[in-house]
């Protein structure tokens, strides 16, 4: 049994009698009705208009049948409608008939050369034309990758959505026009437009041109040779603020380009970037107004120096503890004193520099706080950079401790091999046996013993400063994660899903309407919106995201061996 | 065609020659279990209040009860699951939750390869569940996905053949009849 499906727009249910105009899909045995042409019309003009529409939209629009909406079934009207079938020949010819006070329609198919002797069953599917036209179908994940699927594999729904979306030209004329053709479709109730949107569209062109000019000026300044000298470019690469600013500059360039978006993903991306930038700047200005009210930034600057002092004092106490008897462990007194005094002097230098800068801190902070108006992400990046600068001495201590420990471990492993009579063969990259002289063995064993007994002291210093460094890294990592989140969240798509959920369709859903035996099956097709999780996943903005470079295993191995760790890797960085 | 079980009810409606709907209705939320859960949470909160003399515990308990109830009704408790089979269009699965939320998935007929009863080992039993095999668009012979139908958990495990988080059947024979009915409707 062959099933014939007729997709009928619900806006045409109350249209007056006329011709059905639409697209017939023979592979799926379904007819998509796009509009109804009313009496009176001249067949030749209708045919000419439809051929014009076909040329413009590339959709095979033709007259599919007749539609009659009258109080009682009239014999003359039905004969007239059948005669029309001979003028506009279409195989099969659909005749839809509705009585004004009845819910159930009757539908009959006339086929000149019926392919099957059995009766076809007819299914009537109502769809909301405006929503189907505006929505974008997101097929399930495994189908999006195949770009060259054959016609019979192509999704039926995608063809339906495509047909309606491409026939926009057909919806330009409606029945209140003075032309020879009077159509009914979703725009017959009136064309929607908004003055604000039109004004913004007109104003956007000069604004875009101005923005492009400014951005090209800024980017030429950034790329100039002056800023590329060695110390400066090293500093720029280390500061996360510069990366974030560069990222935002790229975004602005994307928005202000004059080229119109070619397809839906590009359009959504532009819109997402624009809304995300707006939200960022709004949050930044909010933060700025909060900071500058009641001179909070002055208070912040005033507390900065005491906090740095407090951190330095805590570190000094820690070093005094390490130089004594830390956790009951007995350290080697001489090495302990040397290391402890070295680090204490370092802290003393650091505190002197901070005190030197203290009169300028408030002014610097005041001007730096102004840059929060560029966005909340910039403010967070500046915060992360300030934390990095303030804890620079912890970083230095970590590097000293790690280098010492690393040297010790390498020395120990090499001398341990000597102890057992083996040697590392650099050429063959393996351990070979080797016969040592007596004095080599004697000195080697002596050095091995010294290094072994000095190991706990160095290891303890290394452990303490590595933990401090990891703490700072974790705090910085959390701030970067937050910046990433704000950067990549597709706010426009989420708002669209909230307010106009039919625009982002994951699929359709059908509802069975009241039935009556003898009449065709009636279904209502509604749009099934995409879930929030898939919206975020599909429309995520790409970022220079930072993610852990090493797995837990390799991180532990590096910590044990004393290699320096840089746990966060940025996408654009070269592998080292 | 209606079948009454201890835990679920199956209903089958035929709208026309090419359209059928199978709906499985689960037991509604019992007042007994709801009051038992609420009472136990509040008793624990009172006991903590007696220990700590902090009234925040009581407000926290009320908050937790309300939030927990809303989450349970909206995300966990499935009231009814239905399968709508429309020949040459596709298969639609709807789950409606106790709070009124409806979750719908529609699979087009061109993606459906077959409807089968699959066996699985769950804890210490072998259970049977109904599932749809989806065709891989790149390779028409292979199966790309297996979609299990009817995800509800039965309230009592008295029947022999529970579904994985699924409804109950009295016997495998009836299950086969059901599948053959679906297959004639679908393919």
TrEMBL record, chain A:
Keyword Transmembrane in annotation: yes
Keyword Glycosyltransferase set for record: yes
Transmembrane segments: 203-222, 273-292, 338-357, 364-391, 397-419, 440-464, 470-495
Any one Gene Ontology cellular component term annotated for this protein: membrane
GO molecular function: glycosyltransferase activity
GO biological process: GPI anchor biosynthetic process
Key words, A-Z: Glycosyltransferase, Membrane, Transferase, Transmembrane, Transmembrane helix
InterPro entries xrefs: PigQ/GPI1
Pfam families: Gpi1
Annotated protein name in UniProt: Phosphatidylinositol N-acetylglucosaminyltransferase subunit Q isoform X3
Origin species: Alligator sinensis (Chinese alligator)
TrEMBL record, chain B:
Pfam families, per the entry: PIG-H
Pathway: Glycolipid biosynthesis; glycosylphosphatidylinositol-anchor biosynthesis
Phosphatidylinositol N-acetylglucosaminyltransferase subunit H conserved domain span: 82-151
Transmembrane regions listed in the UniProt entry: 29-49, 55-75
InterPro entries, per database record: PIG-H (IPR044215), PIGH-H_dom (IPR019328)
Record-level Gene Ontology MF annotations: glycosyltransferase activity
Keywords, alphabetical: Glycosyltransferase, Membrane, Transferase, Transmembrane, Transmembrane helix
Keyword Coiled coil set for record: no
Family note: Belongs to the PIGH family.
Name listed for the protein in its UniProt record: Phosphatidylinositol N-acetylglucosaminyltransferase subunit H isoform X1
Species name: Alligator sinensis
């Amino acid at each position: 049994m062959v099933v014939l499906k007729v997709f009928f727009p619900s806006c045409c249910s109350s249209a007056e009698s006329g011709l059905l105009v639409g697209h017939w899909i023979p592979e799926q045995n379904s007819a998509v009705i796009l509009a109804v042409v009313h009496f009176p019309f001249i067949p030749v003009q209708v045919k000419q208009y439809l051929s014009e529409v076909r040329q413009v939209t590339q959709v095979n629009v033709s007259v599919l049948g007749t539609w009659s909406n009258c109080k009682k079934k009239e014999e003359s009207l039905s004969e007239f409608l059948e005669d029309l079938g001979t003028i506009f020949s279409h195989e099969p010819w659909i005749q839809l008939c509705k009585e004004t006070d009845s819910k159930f329609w009757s539908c009959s198919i006339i086929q000149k050369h019926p392919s099957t002797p059995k009766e076809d069953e007819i299914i009537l599917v109502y769809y909301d034309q405006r929503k189907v036209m505006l929505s974008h179908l997101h097929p399930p994940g495994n189908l999006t990758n195949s770009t060259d699927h054959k016609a019979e594999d192509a999704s039926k729904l995608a063809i339906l959505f495509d047909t309606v979306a491409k026939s926009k030209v057909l919806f330009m004329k409606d029945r209140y026009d003075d032309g020879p053709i009077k159509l009914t479709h979703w725009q017959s109730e009136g064309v929607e437009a908004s003055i604000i949107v039109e004004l913004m569209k007109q104003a956007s062109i000069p604004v875009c041109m101005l923005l492009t000019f400014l951005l090209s000026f800024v980017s030429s300044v950034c790329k100039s040779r002056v800023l590329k000298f060695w110390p400066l470019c090293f500093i720029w690469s280390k500061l996360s603020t510069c990366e974030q600013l560069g990222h935002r500059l790229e975004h602005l360039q994307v928005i202000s380009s004059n080229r119109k978006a070619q397809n839906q993903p590009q359009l959504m991306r532009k819109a997402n970037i624009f809304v995300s930038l707006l939200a960022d700047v709004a949050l930044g200005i909010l933060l700025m107004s909060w900071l500058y009210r009641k001179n909070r930034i002055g208070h912040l600057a005033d507390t900065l120096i005491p906090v740095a002092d407090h951190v330095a004092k805590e570190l000094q106490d820690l070093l005094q503890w390490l130089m004594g008897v830390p956790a009951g462990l007995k350290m080697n007194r001489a090495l302990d004193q040397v290391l402890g005094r070295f680090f204490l002097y370092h802290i003393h230098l650091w505190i002197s520099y901070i005190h030197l800068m203290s009169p300028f801190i408030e002014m610097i902070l005041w001007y730096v706080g102004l840059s929060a108006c560029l966005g909340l992400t910039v403010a967070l990046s500046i915060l992360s950079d300030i934390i990095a600068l303030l804890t620079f001495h912890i970083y230095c201590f970590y590097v000293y401790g790690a280098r010492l420990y690393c040297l010790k471990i390498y020395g120990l492993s090499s001398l341990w091999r000597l102890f057992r009579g083996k040697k590392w063969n650099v050429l063959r990259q393996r351990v070979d046996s080797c016969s040592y002289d007596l004095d080599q063995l004697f000195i080697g064993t002596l050095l091995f013993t010294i290094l072994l007994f000095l190991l706990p002291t160095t290891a303890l210093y290394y452990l303490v400063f590595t933990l401090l460094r990891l703490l700072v890294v974790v705090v910085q990592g959390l701030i970067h994660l937050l910046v990433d989140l704000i950067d990549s969240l597709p706010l426009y798509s989420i708002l669209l899903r909230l307010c106009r959920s039919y625009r982002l369709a994951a699929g359709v859903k059908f509802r069975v309407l009241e039935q009556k035996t003898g009449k065709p099956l009636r279904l209502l097709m509604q749009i099934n919106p995409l879930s929030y999780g898939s919206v975020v996943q599909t429309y995520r903005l790409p970022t220079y995201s930072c993610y852990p470079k090493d797995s837990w295993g390799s991180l532990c191995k590096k910590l044990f061996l004393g290699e320096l760790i840089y746990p966060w890797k940025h996408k654009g960085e070269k592998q080292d | 065609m209606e079948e009454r079980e201890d835990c679920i009810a199956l209903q089958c409606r035929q709208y026309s020659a090419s359209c059928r709907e199978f709906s499985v209705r689960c037991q509604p939320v019992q007042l007994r279990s709801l009051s038992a859960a609420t009472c136990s949470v509040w008793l624990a909160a009172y006991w903590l209040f007696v220990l700590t003399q902090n009234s925040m515990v009581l407000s926290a308990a009320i908050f937790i009860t309300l939030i927990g109830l809303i989450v349970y009704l909206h995300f966990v408790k499935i009231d009814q699951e239905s399968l709508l089979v429309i020949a040459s269009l596709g298969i639609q699965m709807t789950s409606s939750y106790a709070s009124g939320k409806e979750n719908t998935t529609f699979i087009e007929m061109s993606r459906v390869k077959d409807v089968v009863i699959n066996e699985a080992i769950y804890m210490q039993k072998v259970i049977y569940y109904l599932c749809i095999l989806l065709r891989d668009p790149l390779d028409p012979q292979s199966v790309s996905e297996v979609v299990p139908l009817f995800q509800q958990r039965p309230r009592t495990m008295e029947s022999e053949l529970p579904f994985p988080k699924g409804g109950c059947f009295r016997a495998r024979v009836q299950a086969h009849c059901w599948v053959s009915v679906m297959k004639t409707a679908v393919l």
